[in-house]
Amino acid sequence: MRRRIKICCIAEESELALAVAAGADALGLVGPMPSGPGQIPLGRARALARRCPPPVASVLLSSARDADALAREIEAVHPTALQIVDRMAGPEHRRLRRAFPWLRLVQVVHVEGPAAIEEARAAEESVDALLLDSGRPRAVVPELGGTGRRHDWRLSRAIVETVRVPVFLAGGLDAESVGEAIRTVRPWAVDVCSGVRVDGRLDPERLRAFVAAVAAA
Predict the structure, then answer these.
(1) Sign of dihedral through CA atoms 186, 26, 134, 117?
(2) How many domains does the chain have?
(3) What sign does the dihedral 197-157-2-128 (CA atoms) show?
(4) Which domain holds residue 206?
(5) String of DSSP letters for 1-68
(6) Phi-psi region of 118 (alpha: psi -120 to 50; beta: other; left: phi over 0)
(7) Strand partners, 169
(8) What gap in Å lies between CA 38 and CA 85, rounded to an integer?
(9) Could you list the pLDDT tens digit for every one of the 217 residues in the chain?
(10) What are the Cα distances from residue 78, in Å, to 85, 100, 127, 189?
């Protein structure tokens, strides 16, 4: 099975073009967040979403936790998928489904311990995919992505083996680690931000090395 690749924290058209040329299947556009890299105004996210050529998915990342707030961001950007980076109740997912039946929903589960397995099982009923990351949502300043940290891949593997929806793996991936991550976790897709950047900017050499490592794995 070919592993899909999501390149996150796309901030400008030159990065979008670079990621598409490298073979990215999805591009992450980071909306307002309490912390982390890559945040861009919703207006710029909309412009970039419009530039994503089919079948590359435009994925809006949001830290909002209720359907009304998320709906406002969806309407501002018009992405093809929404990545909800904090825990959200099933009824809110279903409200979004009714309002935006064309939109793919990706729920992030931050793998801080074994409780993440049950959280993933509960979330899968309401979404199209899960994304396993290494944030700390309950920190004083919440960390909801872009940490550059690994989490316990054994727990991620357990989640992949338990749920029925596709699973993205994120958190501390780069060209050196992604092969081991794929072999250990067996995710449907991998997601990278800082691992393909230098001084915050998408780096062509790191990007090519990452894509090659995914293909080799």
Answers:
(1) negative
(2) 1
(3) negative
(4) 4-216
(5) -PPEEEE----SHHHHHHHHHHT-SEEEEE-S-SS-S-B--HHHHHHHHHHPPTTSEEEEEE---SHH
(6) alpha
(7) 132, 190
(8) 14
(9) 789 999 999 999 999 999 999 999 999 999 988 888 889 999 999 999 999 999 999 999 999 999 999 999 999 999 999 999 999 888 899 999 999 999 999 999 999 999 999 999 999 999 999 999 987 878 787 777 877 789 999 999 999 999 999 999 999 999 999 999 999 999 999 999 999 999 999 999 999 999 999 999 9
(10) 18, 10, 18, 23
178: Cβ–Cβ under 8 A, 6 or more apart, which residues? 190, 192, 195, 210, 213, 214, 217
pTM (two decimals): 0.95
Beta partners for 189? Answer: 4, 168
- What CATH number does the domain containing 126 carry? 3.20.20.70
The dihedrals phi and psi of 175, each to the nearest 5 degrees, come to -60, -30
Q: How many CB atoms lie within 10 A of CB 175?
A: 20
For residue range 166-181, what is the model confidence (pLDDT) as tens digits? 999 999 999 999 999 9
| Separation between Cα atoms, residue 7 and residue 194, nearest integer Å | 10
H helices of 100-198, in order, are: 115-124, 153-162, 178-185
Whether 106 contacts 82, CB under 8 Å: yes
